[in-house]
Amino acid sequence: MIENMSFHSLLRDEYFTFGKRIIGVFTGYDLETLNLKAPYDKLPPAVGMLDEAMVKKSTAALTTDVVNKDIRRDDGFMAIRNYLRACIKRLNPEWRLAAILLLNTIGVYGVNLHRETYSSETARLSNLLTDIENNPELKAAISLLLLDDWVAELKQAQTEFEVAEKARIDAKASTSEIKTDDACLEVRKACEFLFQFLELNYQLAPNEEYKQIGRKINEVIAEFMAVIKARKTRNAKEEEAIEQ
To answer: 13, 42, 153, 176: which could form a disulfide with 190 (CB 3.0–4.6 Å)?
Structure first.
């Protein structure tokens, strides 16, 4: 059901991004009913621990509250981005131009900024929201496309994430250093355990939602395997060039 994932070939930041993407796959599902909550709950702290290790902070594992706040702002950003992409297809030229203007502004900070590390996403999203707030033309486009409430909710989600992140750091500051390799291993173990649990549940009680989740996981795996393959090909060519 779940394709093979070459975890050993992932770079440290790729481990983080992969874990975050897998967390996103499970968003919106009733994990308690699907009997997946217990194995899923191992993943957010593992991804949080890796985030701490990569930024060299001596703090404890990422709390579930911070993960949920991050998912909320990710959802808010993607909802606006996808809506704007749909608005480009409108016959109304004013709507099309407004959507293009806003998408171009988003493009400055990254149409996939929700896939960045927490600190990078926070900075990019904050700058984007500031641009929208201070630019009359952007604000007019937001109002024309009926996005005022959506933007307000995204601002709120961003603020709540920043508050939760600061509270976590303040409350769980520690003098111990988290080793990045150990943190990567924990992400791998959490993912593999979750995948195995999903497959077992599907075998015992086939369910369309299990299949949907499996397909989404495989899509993420396919993306990362393509990255790994491209890197290996590039490295092989570089080694050949050196030998010559």
So the answer is: 42
Task: State residue 111 phi and psi, 5-degree precision.
Answer: -70, -15
Q: Residue 154 sits in which domain range? A: 64-171
pLDDT for 200-217, tens place per residue?
999 999 999 999 999 999
57 Cβ contact partners less than 8 Å away, ≥ 6 residues apart:
169
Contacts of 148 (CB under 8 A, 6+ apart): 142
Q: Are residues 233 and 140 in the same domain?
A: no
Q: Could you tell me which residue, 148 or 49, shows the higher pLDDT?
A: 148
Predicted confidence (pLDDT) per residue in 89-136, tens digit: 999 999 999 999 999 999 999 999 998 888 899 999 999 999 999 999
Q: How far apart are CA 118 and CA 24, in angstroms?
A: 14
Q: Widest CA span of the chain, in angstroms? A: 61
The reply to whether 135 and 221 lie within a common domain is no
Amino acid at site 176? S
8 A C-beta contact, residue 147 and residue 76 = no
66 contacts 168 by C-beta, under 8 angstroms: yes
pTM above 0.85, yes or no: no
DSSP letter string, 86-134: HHTT-S-HHHHHHHHHHHHHHHHH-TTGGGS-HHHHHHHHHHHHHHHHH
Partners of 173 in beta bridges: 59
Which residue reads 């307000």 in tokens?
152
3-state secondary structure of 173: strand
